[in-house]
Structure formats: structure tokens, C-alpha cells
Amino acid sequence: MQATKTAAPHRIGDRFGLNIKAGSGGPSAGNESLTVSYDANYFLSGVRKFLKSLAFPVYFSNTSIYKPFKSEYVMYIGHYGVGLALKKTDNKLSLGLLFLSVTLIDIIHYVLGITGVENVEIVPGFTRWVPIKGESPYTHSLAGIAFISLMVFAAVMFLGRMRGKEKDASLRASLVLSLGVLSHFLCDVIVHAPDIYVSGLNSPKMGFGLWNYPVVSNSLEIGMFAAGLLVYFRSVPVMSARFRRNILVFALCLTAFHLSLGLVPSPDSIVAVYSLMIAVSLLVIVIAWRLEKGLR
To answer: Which one of 99, 123, 141, 227 has the lowest number of neighbouring Cβ atoms within 10 Å?
Structure first.
């Protein structure tokens, strides 16, 4: 019986979960053969490590002098980019309503988190950008977001008919606002850690974890916001220079606020964090509504 010898550690194989062994090719082979086994979990882990070392060496090196910002405030500016872009689908809807639709999930989540209906806690290091961990099956699950989206559709249709609006106009507004709510899932699943449920606490979780890459996630969010702003400017039929200037100032302030949250210390209390975010979210909605109402 011939003994099987193990090859020297293979750096690439070890990194990507390939277990490479060299052994005899058999009595008739006369030479060595390679046996390769594969571990999917180690492979995915290896890919993540490889991307960190290759594409982002400054930000993810343990010896780096750069410390990634950590913010306990959950403000995903990309949602507002979607709200701005939705103006193109129905420019009769106010920007305030569009912002409400894309942030409604988070506003409900803040309330449920404060009241304890959804269990939320601050866990430093949970992700590199937002260290908030919790179980949010009502607001951060595919089924929960779809249900709230349907409720918004029904409510807007009902209110539109009650106010005597044409059926087509009510239907368009209902679709756009419910789509804004539903877009929250698509945006969140990209940046969240795997903490977004499919339906309930016992269902699978989803999340690509882009918040572990602060530079990438913030670049994506700001890019979405800038793209949405460009679509918005092209969607508003009548726009004065003053109105355009004020919208730009508003957008720059919103972007600066989003980035500044990673620089300032935040309280340890989830109640304080979520109370502030409710106030900020509502303030942004009111400002957006007032800008369009008073300056167009």
C-alpha cells in the first residue's frame, strides 16, 4: 500500500478553499496526481479576504492608520435618490410624498424599535458602518415590506377616489408611492448584513453586507443620490434658477449630514438614536415639500 503525501501549503488554494493534495496516481500511473476538494464556505470567505487585500488595502488592513467610521445613525441617503428619481414617473406628486414613501419603512422601524416591538441593539463591529443589530420581521423582511407597500397602494387609491381624482391619476400615484415603499427592500438588501428576513423570524435572512465596506457603500449611496437628483431636474417641467439653487443646497446639506454621522460620537441608547432619526426623517420630508410648494 502506497502512502499518500500532502503537498506543501498552497497559498492560492488555502485562500479560496481548495484542498490540494499530491499523491500516487496508482500502480499503473507511474507518476503523481493531484486531488482537489472544494469547500464553498471557505471559498466565499477567501473571496472576501481577497477583495479586501486587493481592492481596499488601506481601509481593511489591521495595521492601517485609517479607522473606518462607525455610525449608529441609520440614514441611507440612497433611499432619497430613489425618491428623487420617482418624480419622473409622476411629476404631480410632491417631493415630500416621494421622500415619505421611500423612508416610511425606516420611520415605522424606528417607532417599533423604540417601543420594543422589534428588538434592536447597538453592537459595535456588527458592520463597519452601522453597528445596529436586531430582529425586525415587521419592517425589514420581504413579506413585511410587501405588505406595507400594498397598504400604501390601497390607502392612496382610497384617498384619491374620496377627493374626486380621476381613476387613472389615483392609480398612477398609488403605483408610484407603493413602488417607493417596495424599493426600500432592494436598497437595504445591498448594504445590510444578513439580517433581512424573507417572511418571519424563522425564515432565511438576506443581505450582501456592503456596510462592511464603508468607502464602497457610501460611494454607491451618494452616486444613487446624485443620479436621482439629475433625473429630478430633468423631470420638473418648470424650474426657476432660485428653485434649482435651493434644491442643490438642500441636496448638499443632506449629503454632508449623512457623511458627518460617521465622524461624531453617538449615544449608546437606541431610543436616543431612533428618536433623532425620526425627527431628521420628518424634517427632511417637510423641507422637501416646502421647497417645491414655495419656490416653483
So the answer is: 123
